[in-house]
Amino acid sequence: xxxxxxxxxxxxxxxxxxxxxxxxxxxxxxxxxxxxxxxxxxxxxxxxxxxxxxxxxxxxxxxxxxxxxxxxxxxxxxxxxxxxxxxxxxxxxxxxxxxxxxxxxxxxxxxxxxxxxxxxxxxxxxxxxxxxxxxxxxxxxxxxxxxxxxxxxxxxxxxxxxxxxxxxxxxxxxxxxxxxxxxxxxxxxxxxxxxxxxxxxxxxxxxxxxxxxxxxxxxxxxxxxxxxxxxxxxxxxxxxxxxxxxxxxxxxxxxxxxxxxxxxxxxxxxxxxxxxxxxxxxxxxxxxxxxxxxxxxxxxxxxxxxxxxxxxxxxxxxxxxxxxxxxxxxxxxxxxxxxxxxxxxxxxxxxxxxxxxxxxxxxxxxxxxxxxxxxxxxxxxxxxxxxxxxxxxxxx
Length: 396
Hints:
This protein is an alpha+beta fold. 34% of the residues lie in helices and 19% in strands. The chain has helices spanning 2-10, 42-47, 86-103, 120-131, 162-172, 175-179, 193-199, 204-210, 213-216, 221-226, 230-233, 264-275, 305-310, 341-358, 375-384; strands spanning 18-23, 31-37, 55-62, 73-80, 108-112, 252-256, 259-262, 283-289, 295-302, 319-325, 328-334, 363-367. It has a 7-stranded mixed β-sheet with strand order 6-7-9-8-10-11-12, sandwiched between helices. The protein has a 5-stranded mixed β-sheet with strand order 2-1-3-4-5, sandwiched between helices. The radius of gyration is 32 Å and the shape is elongated. The protein starts with a helix and ends in a 12-residue tail after the last helix. The relative contact order is 0.08.
């Protein structure tokens, strides 16, 4: 029952400190908890589920912010993903009131549509404001105790969207410089001279007319021409990628935080090969599965770059890809659009572990649209950040 998990989060003696809640018409409460657990940073655990397509709530608790306080500080999150359908948002608002009532009282309530509005510092700051000026303990009315807070008080717009406008201005400046190329001047080179040389040599034709007999005596080369490269034209065969299957429970090794992978050592070696300066390997692809546990299986590692990786992308499968482009690295998180929402949510919770194993990348991409997975799109993103002082990588 979801209410049992909420009570655990409120209980100071229980280590459980986060859970994710979604509408569930089959549950007696009208909603259910799809995951919960113990984390050093419970907000980061929520972010793993809060994708652009997600509609749901989160409930967390953090340690008391004052010595005189004897209970945890609780926070209620409502997340409306930017890419979630409008009709689904309207239906979710009714369920949201039931979830919010079950989570009451919560010292802090935050509504967000992106991860930039979710920080532990904001939770602590708003909790202290709800306690009043004297939140450090000591004498005084209400010292160390949190008052009952109206659930709709803490909805303050954040001024962060200004950052996006600054980025757009920086991107627009350097592009005209790239367009100016002096190469068209090379096309002015005209070479009419070879025509004169052909006209100046008609004399050899007379010598050929005087000796017709040797030409008739050599029909044999025609047989050699027939035996030429016809079989070679049939050699190129396009080989479709082999179907990747889920690992058995015995084959799994933990990669971190309850996320598993088959052939862990081989996976780490492949990452080193992609990032090695003198190794031609430029791409590694891993596919996500939910059973028997949340885990990844290596689908491909080798050469072929972006075009090879795109052969595996499918609307019904989730992938993480590490790609080397010269001395730059790119990670691609491919999110399936035809999987159940619970499958996508679990993938969102598991993929940060794989990205952490990938190490530093210059361009992280997250997409559901195959038309965005192009060299033009990746090079455009690299060009936006070309002024930054990047670290090492393969030389171009």
